[in-house]
Amino acid sequence: MRPHTLRRVKNLVRRAKSLVRRSKRQALSLLVAFALMAGFAVASSQSALAAALTNLNWSVSNNQAGAAATNYSYSFKTATTGTIKTITFTVSGAGLGGAPAIVVAYGIGAGTVARAGQVITYTVTAAVSVSAGIPIFVQLSGMTNPAAGSYTTAIATNTAVPAVIDNGTTPAVTFAATNTAATIVVAQSLTFTLDTTAFQLNMDPGLPALADQTQPINLTVLTNANSGYTMTVSDNATGLQSSSSGNPTIPQVSTQMSTAVAWPAAPAHATGYTVTGTGVGDAGFAVNGAFAAGTKYAGFRSAGDVVALSTTATGATANTIAITDQVAVDYSTPSGTFTDTITYTATPNYS
Predict the structure, then answer these.
(1) Which is nearest to 123 in space by CA: 162, 71, 85?
(2) d(C-alpha 113, C-alpha 100), whole Å
(3) How far apart are CA 330 and CA 173, in angstroms?
(4) DSSP state, 303?
(5) How far is C-alpha 198 from the geometric centre of its chain's CA atoms?
(6) Are 56 and 170 spatial neighbours (Cβ–Cβ below 8 Å)?
């Protein structure tokens, strides 16, 4: 064989060996990838193809909303043979409480239990293989019920991976409300009475009996205002005035309530009023002290003065406010008809 032909043969042999080695590596990589994909598919299919638990039930020892130290009992039957490491009980909604403890566990190995939010997890100490169709019963103590409403529990058996073996949802349990919301609406009310809507005094400065006269006016107030009421007395800005030439007036005995004075001795030319009152059963009732229990008199003001008040509701008995309107005339008082309008305003405070 010629030398150059021999070299070509050797080169072809080396290339052939290199291709064989490369093919082996590619084949090995393909095998590893296939194995990983197969393992992932198996693990994924365990969760995706989880079977449905049967005969699911959930009962509670006390169905009052918020009740503590309640026992929860769960029962179900497995659908698939599998090695169970945990059983999760996921209660719907929110508000589950308590620190669960195992009372009894049948059909499953011994274990521990804990709660995190709405999920109760029973962990088998040593994972155990449980056949299909095996009934399992778990009773837990120390639970605190959520608020009133209807709830279910999603139960799942799991491997140590973890991967779901079987799952299902219990029928609903209703937690009942333990209180009644009572709303009573009481209307705001004030009843006011006035026994005199008009009066006339016929006066004569030459006759002592007719020169100084009084007119009693009685008011009553009955109210359920929590902070009581105020009683204000006011009159026209012009006061007790005549329509005669020059529009003369009978002067007020004092400029305002705070400067109330004793009624002047005869002969006098004045008008004014004093106030007394009673508040049976109403500890917050009071007449303004300026009147000194009816011995001092104030002049009327158009701006008004608070003559009596109460800081509480009156109760069943009305407050009585007695106003004595007094007028005295002498020969300085022009003859004629003098008029005024006196206004009484009861203002409740419902705060």
Answers:
(1) 85
(2) 7
(3) 93
(4) T
(5) 51
(6) yes
DSSP helix, strand, coil percent of the chain (3-state; round to 5): 15, 45, 40
Report yes or no on whether pTM surpasses 0.85: no
Nearest one of 225, 146, 206, 201 to 178, comparing CA atoms: 146
d(CA 329, CA 338): 12
In sign, the C-alpha dihedral spanning 331, 333, 338, 342 is negative
What are the beta bridge partners of residue 126?
none
Q: Which residue has the tokens 């043979």?
A: 81
Q: Which residues contact 25 (CB under 8 A, 6 or more apart)?
A: none
What would the pLDDT profile of 250-269 be if each residue is shown by its tens digit?
Answer: 999 999 999 999 999 999 99
Q: How many residues can be counted in the chain?
A: 351
Cβ–Cβ under 8 Å, residues 98 and 66: no
Matching residue, tokens 């659908």: 79
Burial pattern 42-59, b for ≥16 Cβ within 10 A else e, equals eeeebbeebbebeebebe
Token pair recorded at residue 225 = 């205002």
